[in-house]
Amino acid sequence: MIEEKGILFVLSGPSGVGKGTVRKALFKKDTDLQYSISMTTRDKRAGEKEAVDYFYRTREKFEQMIRDNQLLEYAEYVGNYYGTPRYYVEETLAAGKDVFLEIEVQGALQVKENFPEGVFVFLSPPSLEELKNRIVKRGTESDDLVANRLHAAKEEIELMDAYDYVVVNDNVNKAVDKVQAIVKSEHCKRERVAIQYKKVLEVEEK
Question: NCBIfam families from the entry (predicted)?
Fold first, then answer.
């Protein structure tokens, strides 16, 4: 019997492109995907649970994991570390479940360096003008911050060559359909299926 390993899917793109919205809509439709749980050094907030909201670790433990290359990516925000633990991803994939990670572009590039066998999906805005409109609609950023975000977005869009797929987010439901199609097609890729068949044949020949 063919035992298929899970696949790590990484959804990334510029700030304001709608990564979180697409991910939430995707998870309402696709319950087979396992959302990647991050690790953090910040304190647990009321109602949060270990291994559900985050893996909570001390700063010393987190920094030891950085040194031991046990994180697929990490960053520091407002004095606390956040990152993706390698062991959680690898154990989940080994159990045959797909892992889905929604992350900023720089984090995705870190993951690609540490886990190149992942599948990397770049979520792109229909245009920079549309991206500007979405950021402005949030009403949380000053004009200077909007300009900085757009400048960063231009630089990040130039990095899309590092990705396997590009999905234009002009409509959330259409974007979700495209991501689901990517998930299905990756499981049917010859090289993935062939590896599993070869393992079965080797066992049968013994």
Answer: guanyl_kin
83 close to 73: Cβ distance less than 8 angstroms: yes
Both 132 and 67 in one domain: the answer is no
**107 in a labelled binding site:** no
pLDDT at 125 > cutoff 70: yes
Q: What percent of the chain has pLDDT over 90?
A: 70
- Residue 154, marked binder: no
| Same-domain check for residues 116 and 68 | no
Provide the residue range defining the domain that includes 87: 37-96
Is 139 known to sit in a ligand binding site?
A: no
Nearest to 103 by CA among 125, 127, 74: 74
Q: Does residue 57 sit in the same domain as residue 127? A: no
Beta strands 39-40 and 71-77, pairing class: unpaired
C-alpha closest to that of 99 among 183, 28, 12, 24? 183
Q: What is the DSSP letter of 73?
A: E
H/E element holding 115? none
Q: How many domains is the chain built from?
A: 2
22 annotated as belonging to a binding site for a ligand:
no
* Residue 14 annotated as lining a ligand binding site: yes
Q: CA 198 → CA 1, 2, 191, 203, distances in Å?
A: 11, 9, 11, 9
**38 labelled ligand-binding:** no
Same domain, yes or no: 26 and 15:
yes
DSSP letter (8 states) at residue 157: H
- pTM of model > 0.85: yes
Indicate if the pLDDT at residue 165 is higher than 80.
yes
